[in-house]
Write a structure and sequence with these properties.
single chain, alpha/beta, UDP-N-acetylmuramoyl-L-alanine:D-glutamate ligase, Protein-Tyrosine Phosphatase, Chain A, 14 strands, globular, ligase, Lipid_II_synth_MurT, zinc ion binding, cell shape, Lipid II isoglutaminyl synthase (glutamine-hydrolyzing) subunit MurT
Length: 447
């Protein structure tokens, strides 16, 4: 299947100028070690040629694969890239996680020639859930992966229902040849997939042994998206993701294309099993055989900050991005399932994180506090996180060593000092905090 198209001469000239200017900015930023130049080049190029996303994406030979959702985009995108690249395909990918329009443009520009020629087989682009309606028309994706919808940055995005309605409206306008792959375990997305005229493949879990003991506090969509009645859950895997039916109208979970028990999981956390299944389902839809899909999964390495393991001063450090209630509850589950007793939590409230940090009160920090050990807190909102943990401690009358350190570099040093040589230091940062943590630990900036 070849989707690449020829571009008119006048468009080619403007596109070439925009790309060459963007590449010059990239060279300058990287030469001066000012960052990875993952956003600014695309911003400049879009000012010169506003249609640059369309003009570049239409040159992709086999089509654009768009990955959207609240959690798991970066890991799923990188896993799918690994599978396809190991099968000999050339991929354009926004690997730094810059998932707004300027970041998408930059990723395509990075893979284009100075004249604006893009010679890749696939473009795998993770996209912020809020801009999906804006980019579907210029990108015209061949495949859309819909991972999940959770509350995230409510100050900017609003509730999940409003996002899903916008998704449904715009996806329904795409060609019927588009393949949509939603999460069957998310009621909102399962319902979305059932309403679409396109080919729909679902992914999800069939593992009752992994049900949570009870529906957690941080849930978003436990009501039927069709009639509004409370859903009847046989069990939940995380947040509102689970096996469900509606006793009122009969709406029920869609059937996943793959049997989850038969697929391996290389990274910690049940949420990464979802990422694995999403990538495997997409690869299968592209015609990659099962043997080669499994080979890609088995040779996968974690994206930065997403269950990423580092060795610092002879001690193992694991970074678990924790940017919203559901994600943080899952990373806490990973920590509490280990025998390690030192954890560093870093809470920021910058634009990439969302300025409203009230979400930490929906996090089950009691589970982290109950196991005892040493908890170090840092970040721009260090005292908010310290207060949250102190409330958990008092409600449980638990014995923990709580250390409050506003200086991040000192907080990391303190956490390493308290981590025994045979244990792992778990670091749970928000997004901007994760970038800072990695810069301290590795000396390299990501963005």
């Amino acid at each position: 299947m070849t989707l690449g198209k020829k571009i008119k001469v006048i468009d080619r000239l403007r596109l070439g100028f925009a790309v060459s200017m963007a590449k010059s900015v990239t060279f300058l930023v990287r030469s001066l070690r000012l960052g990875a130049a993952s956003v600014l080049p695309g911003s400049i190029a879009r000012r010169i040629e506003p249609r640059i996303l369309e003009l570049l994406s239409q040159q992709v030979k086999n089509g654009v694969i768009l990955i959207a959702g609240t959690n798991g985009k970066t890991t799923t995108a990188l896993l799918l890239c690994t599978i396809l690249e190991r099968n000999g395909f050339r991929i354009a990918h926004n690997s730094t996680g810059a998932n707004l329009e300027n970041g998408l443009a930059t990723a395509l520009i990075d893979n284009a020639s100075l004249l604006g020629n893009l010679n890749v087989d696939y473009a795998i682009l993770e996209v912020d859930e809020n801009i999906v309606p804006k980019v579907l028309k210029p990108l015209k994706p061949r495949i859309i992966l819909c991972l999940n919808l959770f509350r995230d940055q409510l100050d900017r995005y609003g509730e999940v229902d409003s996002i899903s309605k916008r998704w449904t409206q715009v996806i329904a306008t795409l060609p019927e040849t588009t393949v949509v792959i939603p999460n069957a375990d998310d009621p909102t997305l399962s319902y979305l997939g059932q309403q679409l005229p396109q080919k729909v493949l679902f992914f999800g879990l069939n593992e009752p042994e992994n049900y949570l003991e009870a529906i957690p506090h941080a849930v978003d969509s436990i009501y039927c998206p069709s009639c509004g009645h409370a859903l009847d859950y046989q069990g939940v895997y995380l947040s509102h993701l689970g096996d469900f039916t509606c006793p009122s109208c009969g709406f029920t979970k869609s059937q996943p294309a793959l049997l989850s028990q038969e697929w391996p999981q290389m990274l910690v956390g049940l949420y990464n099993k979802y990422n694995t299944l999403a990538a495997a389902t997409a690869a299968q839809a592209l015609g990659v055989d099962e043997v080669n899909i499994r080979d890609g999964i088995n040779n996968f390495h974690a994206a930065f900050g997403r269950a990423e393991d580092l060795v610092i001063n002879g001690k193992r450090v694991r970074i678990l991005l924790s940017k919203n209630p559901v994600g943080t509850n899952e990373t806490i589950r990973v920590v509490t399932q280990s025998t390690d007793k030192t954890t560093l939590l870093v809470l920021n409230d910058r634009t990439p994180d969302g300025t409203d940090v009230s979400w930490i009160w929906d996090v089950d920090t009691e589970k982290l506090v109950a196991r005892g050990g040493t908890l170090i807190v840092s970040g721009d909102r260090v005292y908010d996180m310290a207060l949250r943990l102190r409330y958990s401690q008092e409600s449980l009358d638990s014995d923990i060593n709580l250390i409050v350190e506003s200086n991040l570099q000192q907080a990391i040093a303190t956490a390493l000092e308290h981590t025994p040589a045979n244990e792992t230091l778990h670091i749970l940062p928000t997004y901007s905090a994760m970038l800072e943590v990695r810069e301290v630990l590795t000396g390299r900036k990501i963005l």
